[in-house]
Amino acid sequence: MFLVMNNYKMGRKAMRRLGLLLTLLVWCNSFYAQERTQDFNFNWKFTLVEDTKTPTNLPLDDTKWRDVRLPHDWSVEASFSEDLDGATGYLPGGVGIYQKHFDTPANATSKNVFVLFDGVYNNATFWLNGKLLGENPYGYSPTYFDLTEVLKTDGTKNILTVHVDHSRYVDSRWYTGSGIYRHVKLITVDKLHIPIWGGTFVTTPEVSAEVATVQIQTKIKNGYRKNQNITLITKIIDNEGKTVTLQEKETKIGSGKEIEVLQSLQVANPKLWDTEHPNLYKVITNVSVKGKVIDTYTTLFGIRSYYSIKTKDSS
């Protein structure tokens, strides 16, 4: 079995790997490259602790803690020891606690506010102002939490606490590090918005040198107490910043509901994506109410197609 993709051939294993890569390419860029995000990596406090028990009486007094900027790995800061395991790079694990003091975003009472952690290794527990937000035991998966109902409204600072338990540190065949080792973002959106994850799903079902069909599935959530009439404005931009196609679609969404809108756009003379020419396009999705854009969502994607051919020497 061989994969043919824009005139390039590759074996079965490469096909599977590339298929996974392409899926992740669309999925990841759908929620990381947002104009509505704020860098949340600065001004964190950190300390290592001996006790593995989940802390109480939160938030904690962090006046004597270290100042750190994320991403941060406390294991790599420690000393190497032959007594430790080679899989951990001969470095220790342990338990660490992070805290961040921050102001409530402007107009937060009319918005939804989320915090997104790209990766915390591992067994992480999260609180805002002493209220439990949730847990994430897996160190490689991102996670996000809705802060809207817990944010302070009295003008005092919020305190975000993250407890990371990597005391059982021999848990991998390779070095993992310990702590909030990936980026953190604060995301502020209107109550009517495209979801943080899975907001758009882009496919290219028909591709030729002359024209490509791009299908875009967009999810929209309405957090208001009344129905909304919206216009979904979607445009595709090439790698030179030129708008190559645009489509508007009007629809209604009920109070507290989530809908999915399907759009099909045509791109003439597309610049195809392949392993030697990784041309990328950008889908910019705007949600408009009464002529005002209230949310913008950006997705990177490549125009490509592939099919398989069975040959006599297939294994």
Automatic annotation (TrEMBL):
Residues 201-304 form the Glycoside hydrolase family 2 immunoglobulin-like beta-sandwich domain. The keyword Flavoprotein does not apply. GO terms for molecular function: beta-galactosidase activity. Residues 94-188 form the Glycosyl hydrolases family 2 sugar binding domain. GO terms for biological process: carbohydrate metabolic process. This is Beta-galactosidase. InterPro entries: Beta-gal/glucu_dom_sf, Galactose-bd-like_sf, GH2_Domain-Containing, Glyco_hydro_2_N, Ig-like_fold, Ig-like_GH2. Residues 1-33 form the signal peptide. Keywords: Glycosidase, Hydrolase, Signal. It comes from Algibacter lectus. Belongs to the glycosyl hydrolase 2 family.
